[in-house]
Every structure is written in C-alpha cells, then in structure tokens.
Write a structure and sequence with these properties.
single chain, alpha/beta, globular, eight-stranded mixed β-sheet
Length: about 325
C-alpha cells in the first residue's frame, strides 16, 4: 500500500516505521527539524515490540507541502498531528484531495473526542475513519519514537455505522509490523473509553508533574480522579453516549485494576507538552467534557478546575 503519515511526532514516527517494516511505501508530511531528520537519518522505532531502523532511502517521500505528493498516490492518509492542527490540516488536505487514490481514506489517530468534525466539512463520511490508540509513545529525537507502555491493540473503524472492513488491509499492515491492531465496529465506544482514561489521568498528572502510577499512590489524587470519573459518567449519560461500562463504579474497577497498572510509569502527552512548553491537547480532552457538561446542564467542577490549571500552566511558559 501507499501510505501518508501526517504529523511525524511520537505516534507518526512509530507508525511509519511499523508500516515500513511490513513492506509498505510510506511518505511523511513533516516540518522543520523533523523533516530534516527524516531526510538525513530516516525513521527509527524503539522500546516495546522491538527496534526498527530505516534509512532515508526507505522513505518514499517527505515534504511540508501536500502539493509535493503525486496525485492518486495514497490508499490511506493517517492523521497523527496534535488535535489543534485539525482545522488547518483538514483545509489544506481538502485543497489537495487529488493525492488520494480512488477509494482512499483518512484515518484520524488522535487523543480526544470530536476530531472528525473538521474533516467532515470537506470529506464524506465514507472517507473519514478513526482509530483508538491506548499505547504510550515518546519521541526521543525528531525522527525516533519509543513505545513505552502497551495495554490493548490499536482499533480502527468509523463512527457512523459504516462497514469497517475496508480498513482491514491497514490493520493487517500495522499488526504485521509488530504493533497489535484490529478492525472494530465499536471504535466510538473505544474512543470514549480512551477519553475517560485520558481525562482522569492527563490533566492531574500534568499539574502534579507525575506519571500515571504515582497518581494512584496518593489518597488525595485518587479522590480527585474518582470525582473526575463521576462527573464524566454523568455527562455521558446526559448526552446519550455509552462505552464499555454502565457505571462509574464499573469503570473504576478496571481503571485501577488494569488500565493504570498496565501504563504505570507512563508520562502523559499532556505532561510531556507542559515540560516542553508546548500547547497541550486539553481542549479536545477535558475541554470536550466541559462542552458536553454545558450543553446538557451537568455540573463538572473538578474537570473545570483541572482544565483551568492546565491552561494557566500554558499561559506561564
């Protein structure tokens, strides 16, 4: 297959190396030091699932302009940018839709909820797909990504009740490159589960400056996470959204019993961004909880406070 990775960060570099490993032709949309590093040194994956190294000549092409890629080329375009880039990326991709092969699809691989909205302004539902990643990645150099924690396979599907089987070749290619991946008819539930997980951990870990596991070792932070989970389930119930657990208590049993232990030492992407003095994705994480709370008149005071604290950290870089 011909694949384009849009956003060569921790996730994009790791997925690019994974797809190269399974024999695909991979191009990158990248900028600045990342573009230069790929051009001069290729891409590298470290950590769990083994090490992969590909020289520059193994990469099909790399550019910071969609117009540089050949027309009719890509079977799948994987959106791995930070969520705040979606407005600009979707508009630019729309201007260069011709780079997609007939039947080509976009696959959004990001944190948060509602990231498909910007792409649906320009592309039909049949072309806009989503994926759930609950694996930890950390970029250790502009063109090097390390897989730090793993708890469940990457899931690919769509949010609109359409047949997900056209994504099977992509899932097989990712799985064949050593990163477990499956097609799912319930990717919406999976994304909401990831939203719960991220919003319970990321902002609090970023504010306190600690990894996920440390949050469970302090009674006070456990109480805060329990409050966050209660608020999120109240919002989802009011909004008519459902995931794999019927109640907040059901979720807490798996959260403390499996999800956090599996990712115990991981530093969240929010904390990584704060340490790098970069803008975080808090608006598409906790910000979405606040939006739904306002829309359905559900109070979310603990989520609101943590959202404000993360915004305050950003404001004081």
């Amino acid at each position: 297959m011909n694949l384009l990775i849009v956003g060569a960060g921790a996730v994009g570099i790791a997925l690019g190396a994974t797809l190269l490993s399974s024999g695909n032709r991979v191009s990158f949309y990248a900028r600045g030091k990342t573009l230069e590093a790929i051009q001069s040194d290729g891409v590298h994956r470290r950590g769990l699932f083994g090490e992969l190294d590909f020289p520059p000549e193994a990469v099909e092409s790399v550019s910071d302009c969609f117009g540089d890629f050949p027309q009719g080329r890509f079977d799948f375009v994987l959106i791995c940018t930070k969520t705040m880039a979606n407005q600009a990326v979707s508009a630019e991709l729309a201007e260069h839709q011709a780079i997609l092969a007939p039947g080509g699809k976009l696959v959004i691989l990001q944190n948060g909820w509602g990231n498909d909205t910007e792409y649906l302004r320009y592309f039909p539902k049949e072309q806009v797909c989503s994926g759930r990643i609950i694996t930890g990645f950390q970029r250790t150099a502009p063109n090097v990504s390390s897989i730090t924690v793993y708890t469940a396979p990457l899931l690919l599907g769509n949010l609109y009740g359409l047949d997900p089987s056209p994504l099977a070749p992509l899932a097989a290619a990712i799985d064949g490159g050593g990163l477990p991946c499956q097609v799912s008819e319930e990717v919406g539930k999976a994304l909401l589960a990831k939203l719960l997980y991220n919003c319970a951990l990321n902002p609090l870990g970023a504010v306190l400056g600690v990894h996920y596991g440390a949050l469970t070792e302090c009674p006070q932070s456990v109480e805060i996470m329990n409050d966050l989970i209660d608020e999120m389930f109240a919002v989802m119930q009011a909004a008519g959204l459902s995931t794999y657990w019927d109640t907040a208590e059901d979720y807490r049993r798996e959260f403390y019993g499996k999800l956090v232990p599996d990712t115990y030492h991981h530093n969240s992407s929010t904390l990584q961004d704060i340490r790098k003095k970069q803008r975080t994705e808090i608006d598409t994480l906790t910000g979405k909880i606040l939006e739904l709370g306002a829309e359905y008149h559900v109070p979310v005071p603990v989520n609101t406070m943590l959202y404000r604290l993360v915004k305050a950290l950003e404001a004081n870089y």
